[in-house]
Specification:
Layout: H1 2-81
Length: about 100
């Protein structure tokens, strides 16, 4: 019977050692997970800022590209309405078949 008690004590000690090793690995993985989370957060915030800056630049460019011709036509129509407008057509492109 004494040998059964020794086996039990050895098994208990082995399980205790395994639980210590398991806890150590769990702590290492938790630290690694926190670092990964932190790095991912930084990358996502950086991408968000870059995307916002790019969107603002695109909006400004498209705004100027769209509003400039509209304002030009508006000015010409106001001049025509006042009786001072130039009714000739100017072609700035290379296709003169539509002029």
């Amino acid at each position: 019977m004494a040998s059964a008690g020794v086996y039990f004590i050895n098994a208990r000690d082995a399980l205790y050692q395994l639980s210590i090793i398991n806890e150590s690995f769990a702590n290492e993985l938790m630290i690694e997970n926190e670092q990964t989370y932190s790095n991912t957060t930084i990358v996502l915030i950086t991408l968000l800022v870059i995307t916002l800056i790019a969107a603002i630049i695109i909006i400004i460019f498209l705004n100027k590209m769209i509003t400039k011709p509209i304002l030009s036509v508006n000015k010409q129509l106001e001049e025509i309405a006042d009786g001072e407008g130039d009714l000739t057509i100017s072609c700035n492109g290379g296709d003169f078949s539509i002029c």
